[in-house]
Amino acid sequence: RNASGALPGLSDTYRLSGNPLPFFTHAAVMLGDSRYRVTPPSFDDLFVIGIDGIPKAKNFIQYQLPNRGISYSLPDAGYYIARGGQSELYFDAGPKGDSHGHYDLFNFELRDSTLLVVADPGPFTYGDSRQRRWAISTPAHNTVSIDGLNHAAIEGANNPAIVVDQFDSSADSIRITAHHYAY
To answer: Checking CA distances to 157, which of 67, 95, 103, 104 falls within 20 to 30 Å?
Structure first.
């Protein structure tokens, strides 16, 4: 989540689906496990967990984002995040992700406050339609596509074919350099 609470639309994240946290609250109430009560009960909860479940959901944990610093990397997942002022950049250097993934090596998404400046297409749709094939393609992403083709389907964490050479950020700049052998 970014500072305004929105999810970046990288890979198959549904950016427009709203807050995913009520899912955990619903599961906590249904399973009687208070560890995952992260949202207050809502009117919709009445229909999802029933009138008897509402009293159980009232003892929720308020979800607060911690101070996450100017940059953060998740090298095993292949995500790199940099923040400065009201801007946030999400950089994807992860493998394709098998049949569920996108051909989006070195794709990025840029947000300025609540304005999405450069967007990832997200999942768009599922199935085997022409629209889905486009949404997961390299040309649909903010990355290099040679002759309008996809890069190779590189799989697996710590793949030697994907290398992030540098990830540095400061209050004034970000520098990320990377290369891959997927063309």
So the answer is: 67
pLDDT tens, residue order, the chain (183 aa) = 555 555 666 665 655 445 566 666 667 766 777 666 666 666 666 666 666 665 555 555 454 556 667 888 888 888 898 887 778 888 988 876 666 678 888 999 888 877 878 888 777 777 888 888 888 899 989 898 899 999 888 876 667 788 899 998 877 788 999 998 888
Enumerate the β-bridge partners of residue 73.
80
Q: Are 155 and 149 in contact (CB under 8 A)?
A: no
**How far apart are alpha carbons 92 and 64 in whole angstroms?**
25
In angstroms, the CA 112 to CA 81 distance is: 13
The answer for 89, left when phi > 0, alpha when psi is -120 to 50, beta otherwise, is beta
Query: Tokens 């198959």 sit at which residue?
Result: 12
Cβ atoms of 69 and 84 closer than 8 Å: no
Contact 6, 111 (CB under 8 A): yes
Q: Are 176 and 95 in contact (CB under 8 A)?
A: no
* Torsion, CA 40, CA 46, CA 48, CA 51, rounded to 10: 110
Q: Which of 168, 95, 122 is nearest to 8 (CA)?
A: 122
* Rounded Cα–Cα distance for residues 18 and 36 (Å): 18
Straight-line distance from the first to the last Cα atom of the chain, in angstroms, rounded to the nearest whole number: 32
